């Protein structure tokens, strides 16, 4: 999933090929990002129900639309941990996602205490030393098609603008990127793995599960961020935590109460317009 030179959004990962660090470096390209649509738009919430009997369904559709549209990645957390049992409840809700043949691919590992300390130290050390490994699965195409590149740049720009980090502030971007490897200091640090034998369909299933997790967290008033940056160091992660080599490292997830005052949490991204991704053929 890696790409990009040192910047902090997944959309701006460290370059796999250090010789071309600017290739994915958000903000280092000339093309201006397109102006995507706002996330809450016409048609995203249920229309007003014509019958009173539909009112409850309509309200719950609107609640769902609000939940989906208000969720956003959280990259700074308050130190207080969520109550005991929270993570178990969230991953159980996430597991309710559909999957092909109900295979339910993917596992969540809560990495806590000494194990988390070991993991974060190893990751930060590796990152600082410039170490690189082959990832378990590919995420970003090389080269990135221009249309996607523009979205990537826009996402990175949203992040760095919120932080007040300038385009050419390599140190500032590095510092933010490094925070991926500490799970943004969230009280809860999850690692997401998948059976190495499974293919693209299972990653699709797992993606649904992940969205379920992020929505379940948002529904409970928690902030969360998926961390694909962890997929940069799969072997190191397996070694440090003593994981089975037959489990691929997919990503991490940081979870906890959002620090609403942190500038990074003002990052907001937009989505492309309906015309960009939806067609009717007759
Ligand atoms: C699978 C996945 C991996 C991600 N990896 C990272 C990451 O490594 N670092 C990061 O800061 N954000 C990461 N993100 C967050 C995305 O940048 C974010 O979802 C996207 O920009 C849209 O913004 P939003 O989540 O606020 O709607 C990841 C998101 C997903 C779904």
TrEMBL record:
Limits of the Nitroreductase domain: 70-257
SUPFAM superfamilies (UniProt xref): FMN-dependent nitroreductase-like
Ranges for region Disordered: 1-57
Domain of life: Bacteria
Keyword terms of this UniProt record: Flavoprotein, FMN, Oxidoreductase
Signal peptide: none
Bias (Low complexity): 1-12, 20-38, 45-57
GO MF, any single term: oxidoreductase activity
InterPro entries the record matches: Nitroreductase (IPR029479), Nitroreductase-like (IPR000415), Nitroreductase/BluB (IPR050627)
Name used for this protein in its record: Nitroreductase
Organism for this UniProt entry: Chitinasiproducens palmae
């Amino acid at each position: 999933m890696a790409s990009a030179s040192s910047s902090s959004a997944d959309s701006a990962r460290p370059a796999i090929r250090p010789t071309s660090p600017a290739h994915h470096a958000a903000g280092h390209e000339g093309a201006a990002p397109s102006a995507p649509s706002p996330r809450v738009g016409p048609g995203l919430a249920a229309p007003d129900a014509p019958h009173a009997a539909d009112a409850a369904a309509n309200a719950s559709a609107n609640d769902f639309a609000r939940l989906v549209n208000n969720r956003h990645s959280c990259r700074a957390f308050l130190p207080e941990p969520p109550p005991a049992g929270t993570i178990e409840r969230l991953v159980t809700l996430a597991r309710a996602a559909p999957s092909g043949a109900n295979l339910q691919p993917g596992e969540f590992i809560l990495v806590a205490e000494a194990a988390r300390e070991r993991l974060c130290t190893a990751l930060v050390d590796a990152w600082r030393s410039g170490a690189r490994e082959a990832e378990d699965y590919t995420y970003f195409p090389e080269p990135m098609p221009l249309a996607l590149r523009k979205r990537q740049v826009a996402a990175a720009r949203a992040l760095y603008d919120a932080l007040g980090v300038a385009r050419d502030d390599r140190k500032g971007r590095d510092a933010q990127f490094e925070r991926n490897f500490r799970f943004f200091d969230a009280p809860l640090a999850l690692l997401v793995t998948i059976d190495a034998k499974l293919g693209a369909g299972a990653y699709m299933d797992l993606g649904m599960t992940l969205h379920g997790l992020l929505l379940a967290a948002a529904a409970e008033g928690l902030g969360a961020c998926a961390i694909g940056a962890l997929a940069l160091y799969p072997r190191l992660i397996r070694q440090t935590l003593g994981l089975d080599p037959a489990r691929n490292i997919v990503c991490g997830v940081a979870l906890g109460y959002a620090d609403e005052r942190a500038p990074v949490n003002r990052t907001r991204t937009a989505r492309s317009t309906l015309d960009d991704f939806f067609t009717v053929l007759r």
